[in-house]
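Predict structure. Chain length: 480.
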Amino acid sequence: MMQNPTYQLIHFYEVFISLFSVTYILLYIFLSFLSYYAILKHLRYQKYISEDILTRSNHLLGVSIVAPAFNEGVSIVYNVKSLLSLTYPKFEIIIINDGSTDDTLTKLITEFELVKIDFYYQEKIVTKPVRGHYKSTNPIYSKLLVVDKENGKSKADGSNAGINSSKYPLFLCTDVDCILKRDTILKLAKPFMENETRVIATGAGIRISNSCEVKDGFLHKVHFPKDWYPRFQELEYVRSFLFGRMAWSQINGLLLVSGGLGMFDKEIAIKVGGYWHKSLGEDMELITRMRKHMHENKLKFLIKYIPESLCWTEVPDSREVLLRQRTRWARGLIQTLFLHRKMFFNPKYGKTAFMILPFFLIFEFLVPIIEFFGIIALIAGILTGRLNTEYLIIMSVFVYIFYLLITLISIMIDDLLYKSYANYKELMVLIFMAMIEPFVYHPLNIYASLRGYWFFFRQTEQKWGVMIRKGFTTTQKLTS
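Prediction complete.
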C-alpha cells in the first residue's frame, strides 16, 4: 500500500534532522574539548613567558592602529584619547574620517591641534580619493595621524585608506568607538614575534560595553547590559568567542577575525588587495583571501586567537538595528562562500577546502534553512494529523539540553578565568537569558539570516545603515 507523500516527506525529514543533530552535537563536543585544552595551554604558557622581555626586544614589531570613523562626533575625542593611552613602545594611531557629515573632523582638529601636512601617500589599495593628512603640532599627540577622505560607503574603503597611510608591518583594525585594554597591542602582536611559522592574523575576545563604566578612556567596571537585546548578544559573544574561535585556532582553522579587533600582516593583506569594499562581511572575506593566497603560494601560515577579552564595543539595543546588522552578517556569509566557491574540496587549499569552508556552509549557512523547513514540516504534520509528537518532544528536549549545557559551560569557564561580572546576580541573569534565548532571541536570528539570504539571491542592494551611539557611562575624577 502506497504511503501518503506528505507522510513520507515528514518521515524523511525526521531521519535527516536526527542525523544532522547528532553530527552537529558530536562536532561541538569535539570543539568544546579542543577549546578547553587550548585555553589551559594558553594560561600555562603565559606563566613562563614574560611580556616585558618582548617590549624590550630589538625585534619588536611596530603596529599601526587603523580606525575608520563616520559621523562619530559625539564620542570621537574621547575614543581617540583612549587609543593614545594604550601601552606599547612602537605604534601609531590612524583615524580615517570617512567623509563624515557631522563635526567629527572639526573636533579632531580642535582637540588635538591638528594641521594639514604634506604626506607621501601610496595608493597600494584602491580607495575613494584622500583629501588630506593631518598631524598634531603638540608632541603629546605625535602618534596620531588623521586621514580625511571621501566617503566610500563601507568600513572597508576607510580601512584600506588607513592601511595605505600606515608605516608599520602590522596593522590593528578596530572600530573607533571600541574600548581596548591597555595591553591589547602587545597581546595581539606576541604571536607574530613568537612563532617561527608566519602568523598572518590574530584576534581576541570582544565583549559588550553597553552599561559598562568607563574612566579616563578605559573600562573601569564591567556590568551586565541593562537592555534585553544587548544581554542576548553578551551571551552570544561569550559562547562564540570562547568556545568556537578558540577551538578553530587550535587547529589553525580560523576563518573569521572580528572586524572590531583584528591584527594583520600588512604585506599579505596588501598583496591580496586589502578589504573588499563591496563585501558585507569584509573581515571573513579578507581572511579567506589571505588563506587562499598562502595556500596558492605554498607558504606555511598561522592565524591565532587569544582567549582574553581585549575589546569592548557598543552593540545594537533595538530590534530594528539588530535585525539590520544580522541580515547584513548573513548576507556577508553567503556572499563570501559564493565568491570563493571554487575553493571547496580543491586539494590546493588543504583544510580550508575540506574542513573549514564546508563547516561554514553546512553548520552556519544551512542551519537557518533547515530550521525553517522544520517549521513547515511541523505545520504539515499538524494539518495532516501525521505529527510524531513523541519524536518532536524527545528531539526538542535533547537539543535544548545540549545547547544549555554548552552555553552554561561557556559562562562558567569565562567567569572562572576572567571574572567578567561584578557580582553573582549578573551571572545569574546571564544564565536566565541562556534558558530563554532559544524561544525569544534565536527566532529573530533565524529570520534575519533567511532575510539576508533572500536579499543576496535577489541581488537587493544592501545598505549598511547607521547605529546611533549612546556612548558609555563615564566615571570622572573629582578635582578639588
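Summary: Confidence is low (pLDDT under 50) at residues 475-480.
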